[in-house]
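agent> fetching stored inputs for the protoporphyrin IX containing FE docking request
agent> found them:
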Amino acid sequence: MNGAEKLQMRESKQMPPQIRGSETIRVTLANCLLCLAACQEIQEKLYAEINQLFGTDPRPAEESDFKNLPYLDQVIRETLRLFAIIPAIPRQIENDTQIGAHLYPKDTILIVNIAGIHHNPKLYPEPYKFNPDNFTPEAVSKRHRHSSIPFSAGPRNCIGKEFAQLMMKLSLVALLRTFSFHTSIKLEDIKLKPGPVETISGGYPIRIKLRDEGARR
Ligand code: HEM
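agent> prediction call returned; pasting tokens
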């Protein structure tokens, strides 16, 4: 079986279509723009990083640029922490398994609570605040490597992870170079709507402004 056939088989047998497609990217990008609109100082810090790299050069971003945009990476990782769009995943265990004080018999279905991990105050002291500094190299080095798992972990993790991150970075750079985003919504007032991909209930208003011609690159 070649790589494409394997991917097709995994897609058709395992996952609801929303989880494996562009829906995940669309929802995460919308969540990210809302976070940036609600936190202007973070949006401007990100814009400054992008502006410093591109200056007056009108060329579009490409993959090799992203090693020079560390704050962009932090912003996306923090968005996926705060809004774990796939908040939980099931796992059926193959053998009797001891976890802490509990012995789970073979075939038990356990739920990995991704959102619970991401909002654990022992890992993130202010779990409901949008704070990309949760993902500075220093902060990451102090936490367990599975303290942020929006794409799951292990051999069955998300096969589209790299593609999704690339698409989100390309889109955000293009959007932020041209527009600024504004809202009066407070992130703490947002309600989530459960589904295969968790979205924000009822939508939310964002004002999009064209950046000044002088500031725009
Ligand atoms: C922000 C974007 C995305 C997030 C947060 C995300 C998250 C996840 C998660 C949590 C899983 C479950 C893995 C598990 O059960 O351990 C998964 C599986 C999967 N994802 Fe994604 N995903 C995203 C984008 C994508 C994209 C763009 C594609 C396709 C190009 C994709 C393809 C898949 C496939 C095929 C699986 C099933 C893997 C398997 O069962 O072996 N995902 N994803």
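agent> quick read of the result: The longest helix spans residues 161-178.
agent> awaiting further instructions
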